[in-house]
Amino acid sequence: MTARAADRARYDRATAHLDAPVAIVDLDAFDANADDLVRRAGGKPIRVASKSVRCRALLERVLAKDGFAGIMSFTLAESLWLVRSGFEDVLLAYPSADRARFAELASDPKLAAAVTVMIDDPAQLRFIDEARDGGREVIRICLELDTSLKLLGGRVRVGARRSPLHSPAQVADMARAVARRPGFKVVGIMAYEGHIAGVGDSVAGRPLRSRAVRLMQATARRELAERRGEVVRAVRAVVPDLEFVNGGGTGSVQHTAAEDAVTEIGAGSGLYVPRLFDNYTSFTGRPAALFAQPVVRRPGVGVVTVLGGGYPASGAPGKDRLPVPYLPEGLRYDPQEGPGEVQTPLLGSPADDLLIGDKVWFRHAKAGELCERFDVLHLVEGDAVTATVPTYRGEGHTFL
Q1: Is residue 23 within 8 Å of 378, Cβ to Cβ?
Q2: N or C, where is the chain less crowded by C-beta within 10 Å?
Q3: Do 33 and 289 meet the contact criterion of CB atoms below 8 Å apart?
Q4: How many other β-carbons are positioned within 10 Å of the β-carbon of residue 241?
């Protein structure tokens, strides 16, 4: 029996009492992935990206481990909810335009002390000031550095379109703009190198593209390491008591941690290890988060149909944004239908061994987005479900 077949047997036994659709997290794999992130971080703390987890119980589990400290959130409403739920250090990784929550933040000492918000434009400071509604608490500010690699005098850009702050001078000027404005304090810098951490460099069947990605990433790492160091020195000249410099992502943990300028690593997807991480050479994780759909039809030889399953992930549309049939091995989508809203035909010889009601296990393309489809996660240890915990959705929250 292969390792994957053994996992399927365990998951089927663990969830035999549960009807599909069902989502699980294999805690043995989750914990092993957490340990691997800590190892690769080389002693620097890891701030957990909540968007990649979207479950309070699992955020609590990973933050109880040595090597993890703080949360990187994705909306201001989520940030305030997390602090009110007992989390103490929350960095909002994206700018917000939530006037009501800024008013709450500015009027509550506990929230203001625990939440750091992201900016990259003076207009965002003005927006926050106008939203204060009389609140006088000092707002903790993190400045975001654009990590993109610019070539040929800027005519070629590689990397996500995030912050407009690219040069050390631009980031330092933004720090000065914050310092001049009462009610704000710069406490950190964030730089997420998505083109390094979030792009697979070993795509099956595409050796030339894979080599090009590796060359690009090597060039980008060198350029960013030098520029990030210059940025931090320039900002510390304005803000000597800067508290943190956050960088990285699951795919680049060990490289980012090697930079002296970086004080902490942001990562989260590497806990669940979704299918997008199958194309990386920098690390090998264990799939921890899976979902199962039930077989509801047997249309013919070599075909079964499962209920639903059309759970595409965010990003540019493409096959790499789709879940993949994982267990039993050897199933594939019908190219004429793909994963559907209410039914998904699956092709392959393993279909002939599946009965009505059997579970087919899938892996989602991106980590935490799976939790937008399920109210609960069943936590599996060995061949048993040992706990059932709510996702954000299960607690009544869909922040985006």
Answers
A1: yes
A2: N
A3: no
A4: 8
Question: Phi and psi of 177, rounded to 5°?
Answer: -65, -40
Question: How far lies 245's CA from each of 145, 228, 241, 261, 292, in Å?
Answer: 10, 9, 12, 7, 39
**Dist CA 120 CA 144 (whole Å):** 6
pLDDT exceeds 70 at position 379 = yes
CA separation (Å) from 355 to 306, 323, 349? 11, 22, 13
The token pair that represents 27 in the structure block: 């805690």
Helix boundaries (H) for 148-295 = 168-179, 194-197, 207-236, 253-257, 269-272
- pLDDT grade, residue 197 (50/70/90)? low
Residue 122 neighbours by CB under 8 Å, 6+ apart: 174, 177
pTM over 0.70, yes/no: yes
Q: 36: helix, coil or strand? A: helix
